[in-house]
Design brief:
By secondary structure, the chain is an alpha/beta fold. About 65% of the residues lie in helices and about 10% in strands. The protein has a 6-stranded mixed beta sheet with strand order 6-7-8-3-9-10. A 4-stranded antiparallel beta sheet has the order 2-1-4-5, with helices on one face. A hairpin with a 2-residue loop joins strand 9 and strand 10.
Length: about 575
């Protein structure tokens, strides 16, 4: 898990390599100017003392004062450039991470939400990418933060070796402090981000069930459920502050001691005429730079947050995306075959060595009680999910060998609760391979077949109506989903309970239109109504993940257990 997260952060850094290099150069320049400044200040002070005693050396003092001004102006300019470049680099890297993660989630398909709840997945795609985005700037800043103390130590050594010896006497304690902080803060940040994801998951669930919550008058109880991880979030937050506080407290206690040791040593050297007053000033400034633990603590904390966010993103990338081949379908009418298909979910066998064949051009209705595996069978038929064992073939070609474009052009889907994607209703009907404009006749014909054309034309802008502005009932949204499936075309059409929200008359008319609209298409229909099963060529009765019976609806209807599947659909349905 950590390896995949670190690999992602390295890729993000490589993506912004040019900007990261520019940031590193700026930070090196800033560190170099900052390291040069104490030396220049010391020389300026010595030059001012010399000018006071020897007026002829006044020009040298002015020279060093000009250099001080140039250095300070350069530091201000470099700081401004760093701020601008850091902001743009963070935004660019965050956008790349979001594009990478979103593309992977869409490539994985339903399997992504099977492992990660929708709210947690959204928190990772939005929050974790924003926290991982600053990784190039954080690396550059950390490099500069390390460079400054190292450079300060070198400057102390060049001033006098005894100054370095005085500082290094307390360096091991400083190293232990930083190491302890990095370890403790890593655990806190990971737990904190996980708690944030938990809250996001519960909030998403509550928003999706807002009507149910309002109807049940359970808003207070649901609010308490959504916010129940807050104590854990608070606990981890307080723990993180405590860890950082202890590190800062240790730095506050240790840094002055190291500085005093260096300054005291410099004072002794001054008394023995081995240092000038200016060099003593420079040594005190270098000691302060060498003990810049506060900056190190902040940069290490930022790196820990970035790495923890990268690990959460790496978890998503570890979910494997389906692999596609490059095969193409031969001429055919959409013969579907499932051979010994087994699907397991959370340790439970949903489909158990299922064998099923749907001849080309026929309509198969899949029925069964809740949990029998109907929707799983529908997902497997068009490779929205892959079976754990077994093979699914379309016109003799395993689905895993088809290219993505070939598979998606051959299989169309309609669902019980279709999501209306696209800017307009025309866009949502045309989603996927096929037409993309409202004027295309295929859109209108598909809407007419799904009995959606009439209510779409009653809208002020017709097919150009924005999806967000269309006041649609559940049945109307379902009809648009059916229209989208009809417009898709292809040789296999899978309807996963896509007629459940329709009234009986509309359902009967659409079921009839289904046969007329795509006479050369094989149809697999997950049915909950006996009237829908009655119009199919064949019915597959699922029970416990296996086909209990296969045959015409009229013959199966004689079995009381089969009739019980429809839970009182009525004798007329037969």
């Amino acid at each position: 898990m950590k390896a995949s997260g670190d690999a992602l952060l390295r890729s993000a850094t490589r993506y912004s390599a040019g900007r990261c290099l520019a940031l590193c150069l700026l930070t090196v320049a800033s560190s170099g100017a900052g390291l040069l400044l104490p030396y220049v200040l010391g020389r300026t002070l010595d030059a001012l003392f010399a000018a006071h005693t020897t007026p002829a050396k006044d020009g040298a003092a002015q020279h060093w004062l000009v250099i001080c001004g140039v250095l300070l102006g350069g530091l201000m300019l470099i700081g401004a450039c760093e701020d601008v470049l850091t902001g743009t680099t963070n935004a660019r890297t965050t956008a790349w991470l979001r594009h990478r993660l979103l593309g992977h989630v869409l490539a994985v398909g339903p399997g992504a939400t099977a492992r990660f709840p929708a709210g947690d997945l959204l928190a990772r795609l939005v929050g974790s990418t924003a926290q991982a985005g600053p990784v190039p700037a954080t690396v550059a800043a950390l490099a500069a933060t390390v460079l400054t103390p190292v450079g300060a130590l070198v400057a102390l050594g060049l001033t006098d070796p005894w100054l370095v010896a005085a500082f290094l006497a307390g360096a091991p304690a400083l190293a232990l402090l930083l190491r302890s902080f990095a370890r403790a803060s890593s655990d806190c940040v990971t737990a904190y981000q996980n708690a944030q994801g938990d809250i996001a998951t519960r909030l998403t669930e509550a928003i999706g069930g807002a009507r149910t919550i309002a109807a049940a008058h359970t808003a207070d109880r649901e609010t308490a459920r959504v916010l129940s991880p807050l104590p854990r979030l608070r606990s981890q937050g307080e723990r993180l502050w405590q860890v950082q506080g202890r590190a800062n407290a240790g730095a506050v206690a240790l840094a002055p001691l190291l500085q005093i040791a260096v300054v005291a040593t410099a004072g002794l050297l001054l008394l023995h005429d081995r240092l000038s007053v200016g060099e003593l000033l420079a040594a005190s400034r270098y000691a302060a730079l060498a003990t810049g633990v506060g900056m190190l603590v902040g940069d290490i904390a930022a790196l820990v947050r970035t790495r923890a966010a990268g690990q959460r993103l790496g978890d998503v990338l570890e979910q494997p995306a389906p692999r596609y081949g490059d095969a193409r379908l031969p001429p055919g009418g959409g013969r579907l075959e499932l051979r010994s298909v087994t699907v397991r979910r959370d340790g439970r066998t949903v489909l158990d060595r299922l064998d099923l064949t749907v001849p080309a051009g026929e309509t198969l209705a899949v029925v069964g009680v809740s949990g029998a595996g109907k929707s799983t069978l529908a997902a497997v038929a068009g490779r929205l999910t892959d079976p754990d064992e077994g093979t699914v073939l379309l016109d003799g070609v395993p689905l895993t060998e088809l290219s993505r474009a070939e598979l998606r052009a051959a299989v169309g889907y309609a669902f019980e609760r279709p999501t209306l994607l696209g800017d307009t209703l025309a866009d949502t009907i045309a989603l996927g391979p096929g037409p993309r404009t409202a004027a295309d006749e295929r859109i209108v014909r598909a809407a007419e077949a799904a009995h959606a054309d009439a209510f779409v034309r009653r809208l002020p802008d017709g097919y150009a109506t924005a999806c967000a502005d269309a006041p649609l009932s559940g049945g109307e949204a379902q009809r648009l989903g059916l229209a989208r499936a009809f417009a898709h075309g292809g040789r296999l059409l899978v309807l996963d309970d896509a007629l459940s929200s329709l009234d009986m008359i509309t359902e009967r008319e659409i079921a009839a239109a289904l046969l007329r609209h795509a006479p050369g298409t094989t149809r697999l229909v997950v049915a909950h109504r006996a009237t829908t099963a009655a119009r199919a060529t064949t019915v597959a009765w699922l029970d416990g993940g296996r086909v209990r019976a296969l045959g015409p609806h009229t013959r199966l209807w004689r079995d009381p257990a089969y009739r019980a599947v429809f839970a009182g659909a009525g004798e007329a349905a037969a």
